[in-house]
Structures are given as C-alpha cells and as structure tokens.
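Open question from group meeting: does this chain pack into something compact, or does most of it stay loose? Before anyone orders reagents, we agreed to write out a predicted structure and look at it together. Recording both the input and the output here so the notebook holds the full record.
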Amino acid sequence: MIKFKDLTEKKFGRLTAKYNTGKRQKGNGEVIWHCICDCGSEKNVRSGHLLSGATCSCGCYNIDKGREKVIDLVGKNFGKLIVKYDTGRRSHGINGNVIWRCACDCGRETDVSSGNLKNGEVKSCGCLSESYIAHEIKKYFVKNYNAKIEYNILKNPNTGYWLPYDIYVPKGKNPNINGTYIEINGEQHYVLSRFHKLQAKKEKITPSEVFNIQKDRDKLKQQFAIENGNYIEIDLNKIKSLEQAVEYIKAKETI
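Structure tokens returned:
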C-alpha cells in the first residue's frame, strides 16, 4: 500500500490542512487536502502545492499583496479626472485595484479603478467621448457642406452676449440666415446635474437658477432657428457616433 504523508493540522502559509478528502489528483495521484484559510475561507488543495508553497492561501494573499502596494492617487489628475477619495471597494481579480471616486471637469463624478486611471483607459466620466463626437460632427459638416461652426447671428436680449450655434449650414434665399441650425447638446441641457451645482458656486446662485438660464438660452436659439430656417438638435445621450448623427440630420433635413 502506498503511504501518504499526513498533513493534518499542518500550516502552509495561511492554509491549515484539516483532512484528507479521499480524492486524488489525476495523473500523479497526489492527495487532495481540505484546508482552512486564515481569512476563514475553505479550499481543497493538492499536497504537492501545499508542500512546495505554490498555494499558500485561498487567494486572499495575492489580493492583500496587491493592496499593500496601493499608491495614494488623491488629488492627482488623469485626463479630465481628478481623484477625490478611495471608495473602499476593489476590482475583481488578483491585483484587487482600488476603486477611486473621481470628479470630472464637466462636473460629473465617476468611479474608476487605479489600473484604468494609470494606463489611460479612462480619462473622463464619458463626456470626453461626447466632446469627441461633437468635434467629429463639426469637422464633417465643415468639410462636406461648407458649414460654419460657433456661428454668431443671435444675441441674448437679456445680456447682449452672443448665443453661438454649434453648426450652421448656409442655404435658402438668404444663406446667412435661412439655413440649417444644428445644436449638439450634452446632459446639462436636459437635466439638473453636478455641472449646474459647480456653476452655481462660481456665479453665487442656485443650481436651479443656472439650469433655468441654460434652458432659456436654448429656447431663444431654437425659436430663432425655427423662425428663420431649420433647427436640428443632436442629443448626445441618444446619439453616440458620427454615423448616427449624420443619418439623423439627413433624415430631418435634406442638406
């Protein structure tokens, strides 16, 4: 009869072998031991891995090891994000990356792992992609339709400041006014958000007042465009690519 080394109650790193499961490793016939980890978890481990040190915990050791190497990122900038605090949560996997709460330049907040911050995978709350789409739409219409961007034709009667349109495509009897007005709007145009809270602090008014001012400006621009030409609004909450935007605009108006 083959004799196997009794590992009962012996310690291997964080694991304590409790009993022989009666199972054997396929191929080499090693005993499979039922072990208790210091963290309280249970795990079945083959004797060879216990004796060689290949397995020394239920997996918590690698996670803790990764946590021990945490570098404080509070206050550091990554693209449009600034790190505010450690949420106390960790990403899945061996490294257990810290999940950081970050504030975006646009006013929104988002949670990002340290790995995604450091490797540049995440640089904003998502608004950066919105800005990219807006940039691509503008470039497309300038190139293909001789459009004008940040087009100034309307002034706010309450302040005297220009209310520029994102894109203007000249056409009609008077190409300077009877064309197609295109606005590319992000979240702040539709819902009260952190963006308005940050603006409120700067302007020393309430977030609701900032939001209402935004809506009033948008309404003025929409009315003027409808009265003089054609108005098309791109909602970046719904339209996520240049291709979608072009298809939507063409469906609304033959440019």
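Observations to bring back to the group:
The chain is about 30% helix and 25% strand.
The chain has three domains: 11-58, 64-118, 127-252.
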